[in-house]
Write a structure and sequence with these properties.
- The complex is a heterodimer of chains A (about 400) and B (about 250).
- Chain A is built from 13 helices and 14 strands.
- With about 400 residues, chain A is α+β, with helices and mostly antiparallel strands.
- Chain A folds into two domains: about 180 residues, no CATH class; about 180 residues, no CATH class.
- In chain A, helix 2 packs antiparallel against helix 9, helix 9 runs antiparallel to helix 11 and helix 11 runs antiparallel to helix 12.
- Chain A is elongated, with a radius of gyration of 32 Å.
- Chain B is of the alpha/beta class and about 250 residues long.
- Chain B has a single domain, classed as Rossmann fold, CATH 3.40.50.
- Chain B has a six-stranded mixed beta sheet with strand order 6-7-8-3-9-10, sandwiched between helices.
- In chain B, a hairpin with a 2-residue loop joins strand 4 and strand 5.
- In chain B, helix 3 runs parallel beside helix 5 and helix 4 crosses helix 5.
- The longest helix of chain B is centred in the last third of the chain and has 16 residues.
- Chain B is globular, with a radius of gyration of 18 Å.
- Chain B starts with 19 loop residues before the first strand and ends with a strand.
- Classes of the chains: A alpha+beta (about 400), B alpha/beta (about 250).
- At the A-B interface, helix 1, helix 10, helix 11 and helix 13 of A face helix 2 and helix 3 of B.
Chain lengths: ~400, ~250
């Protein structure tokens, strides 16, 4: 008998007991679905983090008061000890750093000021003060108009570069360039609009207004806390530049050699590294739980296969009387068990695809192909493995006894 | 697991002329019932030649079922020798016996023993599946066998859509499909009414006339009388071996 014959016998047996098969497979279905959904969500989040959060720009690292990817303990220590990055620090680095491609600074905070235009108001807009060089390092790109110029920066000009959300709110049908909006009662002329970025983890990234850092300093905050962005010419120069920044900052802050930094240097890799450690442990836990699921599912399958062997003793007798060998019977039941569990895997995959789609609507999920393959192989494998014992029992039945059993 | 490979079979033909299909020599079957041992067969010896139509007859408990199981290679004797078509089959393994059952024996049972979920055609194909016959040839041969038993128009019917006589004819087609050395029928009319039983017996007559060797196990005298030779079994021994003159 070929595996194909056994496959069709298995399909036939499944069709004959649809409800029973389905109930039997519930464990395997749930396990497969969970596996794929979890992998999809993790994968989706990884993609998101990589493209939206850990996307500091090409070969850019950021000097900040804190290290972003760190343990809770370290974080508490840093909060006590680390000093904010000041404008003087930025100027100092700009003068003393060698071999960078770009350097810029940004001070950003989500304030409670309203942004207004002709009687309409928007709250919770991100107001950022930036140096003109920032446009070359950030994910914001000029859509229409321009970024503010060096001259406007030097003169603390009341100009702004806004995100799409503000355009959608204030200028649905009008060209926003040259219009004046009010930020906390002060007028700002719009010089440019950014290209749409989209949402990160459900939060819009287009609700910002960028003004020259000098303007921010003049009107809102005399001593803003900065992030200094440094761009290297290529990836190879990143570490060297980071070391330079570290040495300069340590010298400036008078840190002795045995003390740790009182500032943080952050790069995309740092964030991704932390994130992957996080999702890695999440994934490991999921695998552990799934292993239990699969074993339970497998035992249920084994149980139902044992019942099926008992129920079909007469059939086994008939087959044996017609020349089926032990391994024919063995194969028939192992394949039946594998096909049954595999069908559970297919149902699980289908469910997972639907769930992943729904999750993606409200959060994020992206089904990786290897998760689907892993799900199918794992479920089928469980079926084959747990089918061996019942199938072996079936194959060892005595043909005379089996034939004598009532159908 | 493709086509079935013939296991190494004893081709020990001493004492068996080519025309002899079945030769048993001092067959014993002892069942161990714990404290006591029951002898179901106590030294049965006989020969059946190619083309014969033999009834094995005896009351229940006579050992005729045990004898049929041995002849049908469903079981192995405790002692004694059995040659089937020149092959010594009394000391074969389970899988070798399965091969013999597939190739040499066509079973017809009292209760038909068809797979209830399969069509007549698929039931007849079963023995061919187990020797790896390609699908197209399998189908052609199964159809031919069904036409031989005049069920050419019932091939796609399932057993529960067929009458008792038709079911038994499907079983006979299944027994014929592998062109076995013998057709071994165990009370083939036991579950049929007299008229249908007569039809089935007529079919056996025809099959025998066209050269098939038939061994019929029964306890009914009228049925046994349809054969050309009757071997009477009583208390595990051959009591009488007679020609019926048919």
């Amino acid at each position: 008998m070929t595996a194909r014959e056994a496959f069709w016998i298995a399909i036939e047996a499944l069709r004959a007991h649809k409800l029973r098969s389905f109930l039997t497979l519930l464990g395997v279905v749930i396990a497969t679905t969970t596996l794929i959904v979890v992998m999809s969500v993790i994968n989706g989040m990884n993609l998101y983090i990589a493209t939206h959060i850990a996307n500091l720009g090409a070969n850019v690292f950021i000097l900040d008061q804190f290290n972003w990817a760190t343990s809770d303990e370290e974080w508490l220590k840093e909060r006590r000890r680390n000093k904010p990055i000041k404008l003087e620090d930025y100027s100092f680095l700009k003068e003393n750093l060698r071999g960078y491609k770009n350097i810029g600074a940004t001070a950003w905070f989500r304030n409670s000021f309203a942004v207004r235009y002709e009687g309409r108001a928007m709250y919770d807009v991100q107001i950022r003060g930036e140096t003109p060089s920032m446009i070359d390092m950030e994910q914001e790109q000029v859509g229409t108009g321009r970024y503010f110029s060096q001259a406007e920066y030097e003169h603390s000009a009341p100009v702004c570069f806004i995100g799409r959300d503000l355009v959608d709110e204030f200028f649905p049908n009008v060209d926003p360039l040259g219009k004046v909006i009010e930020v906390d009662g002060l007028p700002f002329r719009i010089v440019g609009v950014a290209q749409k970025i989209g949402k990160t983890l459900g939060q819009s990234q287009d609700d910002f207004a960028q003004i020259p850092l000098t303007t921010l300093q003049k009107f809102y905050s005399a001593r803003p806390r900065l992030q200094v962005h440094v761009q290297a010419g290529n990836a190879g120069q990143m570490l060297e530049l980071e070391d330079q920044v570290r040495a300069l900052m340590r010298a400036r802050h008078h840190i002795s050699y045995q003390q740790t930094d009182d500032f943080g240097i952050n790069a995309s890799q740092t964030i991704m590294g932390l994130w992957e450690r996080l999702t890695g442990s999440l994934f490991a836990i999921t695998i552990g739980i799934l292993a239990v699921f699969m074993v339970v599912g497998g035992i249920v399958i084994m149980n139902i296969m044992l019942a099926s062997v008992t129920e079909r003793t007469h059939e086994i007798g008939i087959r044996k009387s017609l020349g089926a060998r032990r391994r024919d019977i063995l194969m028939q039941f192992v394949i039946e068990s594998g096909v049954m569990a595999g069908a559970g895997g297919v149902i699980g995959v289908a469910l997972a695809l639907i769930i992943a789609k729904l999750v993606d609507m409200v959060f994020t999920a992206s089904v990786p192909l290897n998760a689907v393959l892993a799900g199918l192989m794992l479920s089928t494998g469980v079926g084959l493995f747990f089918g061996i014992y019942p199938a072996n029992r079936a194959s060892k039945l005595d043909p005379i006894e089996a034939l004598r059993t009532e159908a | 697991m493709g086509s079935q490979v013939a296991p190494a079979l004893g081709r020990d033909v001493e004492g068996a002329a080519p025309s002899v299909i079945i030769k048993t020599e001092d067959l014993w079957k002892t069942y161990d019932m714990g404290a006591i041992q029951v002898n179901a067969l106590c030294g049965v010896s006989f020969q059946i030649e190619r083309g014969e139509y033999v009834a094995i007859m005896g009351p229940s408990g006579s050992g005729k079922s045990t004898l049929m199981n041995l002849i049908g290679c469903l079981d192995t004797p405790t002692r004694g020798e059995y040659w089937l078509n020149g092959r010594r089959v009394s000391e074969l393994t389970d899988d070798e016996l399965a091969y013999i059952r597939n190739k040499e024996i066509g079973f017809v049972f009292q209760t038909f023993n068809l797979l209830s979920r399969a069509t007549a055609l698929h039931n007849v194909e079963l023995p061919l599946i187990y020797n790896g016959t390609p699908a197209a040839e399998r189908r052609a041969r199964a159809e031919e066998a069904l036409r031989t038993v005049e069920l050419g128009d019932r091939m796609e019917h399932k057993p529960n859509e067929l009458s008792g006589g038709q079911r038994q004819r499907v079983a006979i087609a299944r027994a014929l499909v592998n062109r076995p050395s013998i057709i071994l029928a165990d009370e083939p009319t036991g579950n049929l009414d007299t008229a249908t039983g007569d039809e089935i017996m007529a079919l056996f007559d025809r099959l025998n006339a066209s050269g098939n060797t038939i061994v019929l196990v029964t306890h009914e005298h009228d049925i046994a009388a349809r054969a050309r030779r009757i071997i009477h079994i009583r208390d595990g021994k051959v009591a009488r071996d007679e020609k019926t003159g048919r």
